Amino acid sequence: MKISTLQVRSDEPIATWYHVASGNSFSDVAMGGRAVFDLLKEPEIQNSKRVTIATSSKNIQVIAREKLTKCLNLRIEFSSFLGNYHQLSQEIFEISRENRPIGAIIDYYVHDYFNTKLYPNFAKIVADLKAKRTKIGRINAITIPMESDAELNVFIVPEDEERIKNTWILRMAVMEKRRNAD
Q1: How many helices (DSSP H) and strands (DSSP E) are in the chain?
Q2: pTM, 2 dp
Q3: Whether residues 106 and 180 fall in one domain
């Protein structure tokens, strides 16, 4: 029996999830709790198209980004983003050095329960990474060149596009390098 969607939202022993994951090709995976550490090692999870991870553990976030480089849509959910502000430039730099396919998207979903809208400091990121500001349609973004023939564009998703109450999204999208018409 082939399964295309897997949701693991438990800190219980995960022997059952290994059995389910084995031999399947997933289009959607959602994980939370301690199970994420072990399941991220599985090739069936690493080759999934869309993965959502709900965690507050910095270790899991780093492991997820390292292991899921083939994933087209990686979504990491935070209940608080305050601890990540200081390392954000470094995280974005590391993501820009990964060999991700064009079209890959990494979303940091930040659940802002008190509606503070305390967004990342883009001026600091630009200065730290020697990146450039750009416009993608009507969105202000930061562009960082990647080692491949691509660029990483970082921006806050406009609220009118993603209607999720008390949540904002920091999106990192791998796009083809734009050629200047000189």
Answers
A1: 6, 9
A2: 0.78
A3: yes
